[in-house]
Amino acid sequence: MTSGSSPMSRRRFLGLAAAPVAASFATAGCGDNTGRPDGDPGTLVHWYHQYGEEGVREAVERYAASYDRARVRVQWTPGDYATRLLAALQGGAPPDVFEYQTKVDLVRAGLLEPLDDLIADVRDDFSPAALAIHTVDGSVYGIPQAVDTQVLVYRKSLLDDAGTEPPRTWEALADAARTLTRDGRKGLFLGNDAGVSVAGPMMLWSVGLEQVTADRRPGFADPAAASAFERLRDLYEEGTLLLGAPTDWADPAAFVQELTAMQWTGLWALPRIEEAFPGDYGVLPWPRFTEAGADSVPVGAFGAMAAAEGGAADLAKDYIHWLWIERTDLQEDFNLGYGLHIPPRGSIASSARRLASGPAADAVDYVDELGRPSSPPEWTSAMDAAFKDALGNIVKGGAAPREELERAARTVQDELDALFD
Amino acid sequence: MSAAGRFAGRVPRVTVGAVVLYATLTLVALLFLLPYLLILRNALSTDADITSPGWSPLPRELDWGGFAALFSGRDPLMATGLRNSAVVAVLQTAGRLLVCSAAGYALARVPYRHAGKLVLVVLATLMIPAAVTFVPTFVVVSSLGWVSSWRGLIVPGLFSAFTAFLFRQYFLAFPRELEDAARVDGLGYWGTYWRVVLPNSLPFLAAIGLISFVESWNSFLWPLVIAQDASMWTVQVVLSTHLTAQTADLQGLFASAAVSVAPLVLVFVLLQRHIVYGATEAGIRR
Amino acid sequence: MNGTPRRRGWEGITDRPAWAFWILAGPFFAGLVVFGHLPLLWSIYLSFFEARNTVTPTEFVGLANYARMLTSRAFLDSLLTFTLFALFVVPLTFALSLGLALLLHRARRARPLFRTACFLPAACSYVVAALVWRLTIFNGLPSGLANTVIGHFGAAPIAWLAVTDPPWYWPVLVSLRLWLQVGFYALIFLAGLQRIPHSLYEAAYVDGASPGWTTFRHITLPQLRATSIAVLLLNLIAAYQAFDEFYNLLGADGTYPPYARPPLVYLYYTALGSGQDLGRGSAGAVILALLIAAVTLVQGRLLGIGRGPR
């Protein structure tokens, strides 16, 4: 926040009524230090979520420090980043710059600044898929920072020992998980919630469905989805999934510590896996489930965004332009210097040697051939919560899949109606 | 049972009953202390040792890296969190003692005609647990522009109906003679409260203050809701954040937990008498 | 007002009851109104509006938010979760803390030592306790403490917090709260025990009662009536407000599983988390506040609070 945006100015209801009280508290010694460098119009606050890879935090702080038209304070946010960001946006204390997904409800509520003018000159250099997930009604609200994907990582030697081929179908995956569960090790790790929070979209694609259809209706209240999720429940009940690990699916620790033979995790985790088991691992997409479905990997891209409210939007946009468009060297460093991400700009991605060979190259191929956006703009956090609730009830609560999916579909339809009528 | 202990065993001798009693108590005490032991054990073990198979009650090898990292600034959030918690707990405790003791005194002693009705208002407010109103309170505080601010963290916690009520009950039983003497010396109600009643209520203030400090230091939901900006997180929020994140530095996390809980454990051991007094007062009077 | 001439200036002003009252109690009542009553009123107001992604809504929707909450299975489930939780926690806390108090009361040697040990958990926050419970006692690995213990009996490791059938997360949640609060309530009981006059027991022995269950039932328990009511009430209200240990034991990176979700956790995600819907969140808060008020009133009636000495 800059001092330019007085917090009182946009209070419509309570501001006046409570002002005298507020003033009396301020004089009572409670101070008004908000922890922000108020009174310095040239300061931007920039929020990142926590990247698990060593060195990213130091890197983004270094970038911020080398911007010379304003001071930038980086906030590094471990844990529940989305809730914090959404509450800050809604509660009237948003950061000037932040990374997030473009969502229709946030655009409709007027919380995001359109960024079309920043990207106009270099639009063609950006991955169309990455740009598409930041576009609502033809306007771009986030400058893609990195393209991320997730893959199934497996230990070659463990599969060889067990006489198992890398699984390319759902049945093979379930069999492999069973065979590889031995010696105090589990076969497969889909996260501590048995895949409920991460596997949903892939399960739908694997039977030829999607979260929201092109005509903006929920696309998952379908018998095919119901039977797919029932199979996920079978997997959970068989006891071949790793559960209760110290870290979750996004972190390779469970795989590296040999608690599991296969793990669904992010492309970003490959450097640590390479370090632990050089050459002894491979990556696969999420396997298809029925003939109607397809192998898939999810594609996501956090974008750099500016808060619409507040007086610093112009400065924030200048900073975003400098960091994510002008300084291609920083974008390269950010994507390839620490963990592993695919640079969203073709001119950088094509020359990235770290992505040119081995499992990383396989993952990049999967993105090109099988990638689907896992969280498109019309898929809001409320819809996601309802969908995950249904999945949780089906997989872990033993609930009837049809009813659960239909209930979630009603919530999603409700949200869609509110956003697109 | 309790009576039996008091009256049956006047002559100290070792009975089966006594052995069972002390054995049970020792076991319970160890069980109660075990989680603290685990915090220390993990803070002094490497991550690999914490998760490696084969459980051991003590660290395999003492490793001070967790504590060292905490104080070398590798995790600035934790240092900031500890500082924020200290500021919030101290200011909130002091402010609450002042605001609520003054109100309690007025409700107990000032012959204002609406005082009786206002006591009822306080009692009615007690019925609504503060935690249930966190959503609307967030709305009010965010409308004041106090999200992610010291004010937002501290001020809403100052006006505890429960604490004010406790003070009223306490002052109702305060010896009148002292106040009468003060009034003869020309003090008004404020002077009597400030110069005579408060200085003579220090044990009660200490007791309520300690309880309030612990509550403030350990509170989680409100700081979680109101401190969106990491620079305002309290130590509980920082710990929770690392705990529910996708990745974890286990040793660092437990070292931080140890540091966050150590001051309170120390206070509890040293000032146990006051805390027990305050806790029982708070418990019984409610 | 006695108007003693010696009180002038400030002392004079603060000697008038109305002035004195509001000087002393004014800040408190102002705060109580702004941060206690106003939020409640405003949440009632908000609960009648469509308030997604905003705190200043404009679209009046009548009772729609209430209808949605009361027909939301997730919200009703959260009330059930609370009820289950309270059914475990309240009686267990009561019995264990009373038992511990009786033990402490009997121990004449080293009582302060034992008392300190039992009271120390009260210094710990729910967050830190959750950390210990989740990551080291009840983690899903064979190396977890609980799994090591059951391993000695030949049982296979359990993923305590991730398994729903059987619901192993309940012992985790309940044991955490018991650890944190049993010692505290035991001290309250101990204080109550110490206030029981010895003469009552002596008279009973004269009448031929033997120490043990009879005197406990007919003297100790009735004498602890006030303390027991206080412990029950505090406990129940605290259980209603459960948030910290649930959130920190079961929450993960912005998601919370659909089971074991108490009301406050549900409201947190509805209003501020993924839901971003202050209208429904407020409606839920109002419903919950009414429910708690009703329960407190009924319980007060049943247990006879407000009658007789406090």
UniProtKB/TrEMBL annotation, chain A:
GO terms for molecular function: maltose binding. GO terms for cellular component: ATP-binding cassette (ABC) transporter complex, substrate-binding subunit-containing. GO terms for biological process: maltodextrin transmembrane transport; maltose transport. Residues 1-28 form the signal peptide. SUPFAM superfamilies: Periplasmic binding protein-like II. It holds the Pfam family SBP_bac_1. The keyword Transcription does not apply. Keywords: Signal, Transport. It comes from the Bacteria. InterPro entries: SBP (IPR006059), TAT_signal (IPR006311). Belongs to the bacterial solute-binding protein 1 family. This is Carbohydrate ABC transporter substrate-binding protein, CUT1 family. It comes from Marinactinospora thermotolerans DSM 45154. The lineage of its organism: Bacteria, Bacillati, Actinomycetota, Actinomycetes, Streptosporangiales.
UniProtKB/TrEMBL annotation, chain B:
Gene3D superfamilies: MetI-like (1.10.3720.10). GO terms for cellular component: plasma membrane. It is found in: Cell membrane. It comes from the Bacteria. The keyword Nucleotide-binding does not apply. It is a multi-pass membrane protein. InterPro entries: MetI-like, MetI-like_sf. One of its GO terms (biological process) is transmembrane transport. The chain crosses the membrane at residues 16-39, 120-147, 153-171, 192-214, 252-271. Keywords: Cell membrane, Membrane, Transmembrane, Transmembrane helix, Transport. Residues 82-272 form the ABC transmembrane type-1 domain. It holds the Pfam family BPD_transp_1. Its main location: membrane. PANTHER family: ABC TRANSPORTER PERMEASE PROTEIN MG189-RELATED, ABC TRANSPORTER PERMEASE PROTEIN MG189-RELATED-RELATED. Belongs to the binding-protein-dependent transport system permease family. This is Carbohydrate ABC transporter membrane protein 2, CUT1 family.
UniProtKB/TrEMBL annotation, chain C:
Signal peptide: none annotated. It is a multi-pass membrane protein. Belongs to the binding-protein-dependent transport system permease family. Residues 79-299 form the ABC transmembrane type-1 domain. Pfam families: BPD_transp_1. The chain crosses the membrane at residues 21-45, 79-104, 116-135, 168-191, 224-243, 283-304. This is Carbohydrate ABC transporter membrane protein 1, CUT1 family (TC 3.A.1.1.-). InterPro entries: ABC_transporter_permease, MetI-like, MetI-like_sf. Keywords: Cell membrane, Membrane, Transmembrane, Transmembrane helix, Transport. It is found in: Cell membrane. CDD domains: TM_PBP2 (cd06261). One of its GO terms (biological process) is transmembrane transport. GO terms for cellular component: plasma membrane.
